[in-house]
Fold Sporulation lipoprotein YhcN/YlaJ (Spore_YhcN_YlaJ).
Amino acid sequence: MGKKKLGMMILAMIVALLASACGNNGQPNAPNGESEDSSSGESEDGVASKSISYEKLYQTSVFLGGSITEGLSYHDVLDEENVLAGVGKTAEFALKEDVDRLVSRMPEHIYIQQGSDDILWPKQSAE
């Protein structure tokens, strides 16, 4: 087995172990320690069922990024006003082109999603 394959397998195992070690099942915590309960009933086994509404949890935030970030609103995970993204956008282009739109939304939190377009974009020489 090549060194590259072995390295990738080890990396995948580390990621799997880290993901399974999370105590909150990969769900973000509600702001101010409050729990988000979008269902008021109990499940068949008598345990109260809770689910997080990402739209409500991130209603004061904006996600800035490329095509993957755009999927958050496209797939109805977040409202469109909480996502400022587009196919092929790098963080550099998004900050240059979308600052006014970002400021007008007055978010409490901004999440800049850096993707492969940012990694592959050549570095600009200092002017």
In short: Residues 35-42 have pLDDT under 50 and may be disordered. The first helix runs from residue 3 to 21.
